[in-house]
Amino acid sequence: MHLKQKYQKEIVPKMIEKFGYKNLMAVPKLTKVVINAGVGRNAKDKNFIDNVVSSLERISGQKPVQTKAKQSISAFKTRKGMIIGVAVTLRGQRMYDFMEKLINITFPRIRDFRGIEPNKFDGRGNFNLGLTEQYIFPEINVEKSDKARGMNITFVTTAKEDEHAKKLLEYLVCRLKIRKKK
Fold it and tell me: Which of 22-26, 101-105, 132-136, 168-172 comes out lowest in average pLDDT?
């Protein structure tokens, strides 16, 4: 069963039972997934930026947008208009396809994966996942890649509280464990 169908048929009734929503539209849902990669010190290297763009394009299946600096900061040696990152926003079917790939293929490839940390929720029902290297995605060829790059993946939900978002992600990703706070 696909993730979207699973959400509609299994997760919505579980969420209504757990939290007692009176309206079907009040049940939290995943609205978008944003994949973001900064270019850091290599902002002036056009080949590096092209490599980041192509790797994010292969991972997401969608052309990324290059983010530019809004102001000059001399301490970071950035000028206004300089490319400082690359981002992709996935919605709809592409978002669900990416989630399925992340759950079923990518997470099992992470060595010593013990689940996600509960302190990565932002207080408004969104979850941030930081990855240290892009090699965990099957689309990235280690031999052809010039350097290991990290990225941030943000899961944006309509949940008002972190507890509701945690349950939603727990139900969406059955095998994904949310670690207990220490």
Answer: 132-136
